[in-house]
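Why does residue order matter? Because the sequence determines the fold. Keep that principle in mind as you read this record.
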Amino acid sequence: AGEPFQHIVGTADFYGRDFIVDKNVLIPRPETELIIEILKKKNKKGSYLEIGSGSGCIAITIALEGISNNIVATDISKKALSIATNNADIYNIKNIDFKIHDFLKTDIYSTFDVIISNPPYIGINEVESLQVEVKKYDPKIALTDNKDGLSFYRRFSEIGKSLLNKNGLMLLEFGGDAQVDAIKNIFENKKFYIKIHHDIQKIPRVAEISLLP
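Structure:
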């Protein structure tokens, strides 16, 4: 019926570790591991914020790899945060502050050295063309913003300067070649510096956003 094997066995691999997953969270993709690789090279130890934590695999991996021990991870879904908390407990991670939060509508009053996100970036008009295992089994709220797929990037561009500490950066996953020009325009128009990182298939995958000097 197209059900992903990760749902059948109840776990998915991310960065060499198993994480609990079900219909309430996005199944981790290998491409997202690029965020971990970039962070290791950057070696920024400070305070971290993750928007849209889902299963918690990114935040938990950041903690387990010793990248940071000061992490706030948010999601709009209580069910997703419950899974993330369970995953953190399995790995005995105590230094992640999981919070329910609607990023598009609710402000954040803290600042951070690093902000990371793999937000819903699929346009609503593209959902029907997705593979059945994605369209039918991944949570729609984790796939699309119900608009053009760019809502989260616009929001990051609007409030990013108030969220970042000096020399801070954002690492934001996006949908490849089809979105790269739009992502660049969104952040360059708000006077950010943007660098594009490519995944193992040479597809543009992660935008590194920082404040202009």
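The radius of gyration is 16 Å.
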